[in-house]
Design goal:
The protein is an alpha+beta fold and about 70 residues long. It is built from 2 helices and 2 strands; from the N terminus they run ββαα. The relative contact order is 0.13.
Length: about 70
């Protein structure tokens, strides 16, 4: 017996572009939950890796690197 599948596709602005996620699941609710879980994971990467957000890991590393270079110059 073949199980009916529901396919959905969503796009949201993240990571400086549009991130598109496509999911196939047994129900619409399961598909929507999978999309939301995937976007939560991408949002975590966006939060940690954004150089626009001063609280991100990348921004902190950039500031630390610049401060380190400044100390050598002074």
């Amino acid at each position: 017996m073949e199980v009916a599948r529901v396919s959905i596709r969503r796009a949201r602005p993240l990571l400086g572009t549009f991130v598109e996620i496509a999911v196939a699941a047994e129900t619409v609710d399961a598909a929507e939950a999978a999309v939301e879980a995937a976007y939560a994971a991408v949002a975590t990467v966006h939060r940690l890796m954004s150089f626009h957000d001063p609280d991100s890991d990348v921004a902190r590393l950039t500031v630390a690197r610049l401060m380190s270079r400044w100390r050598w110059i002074v």
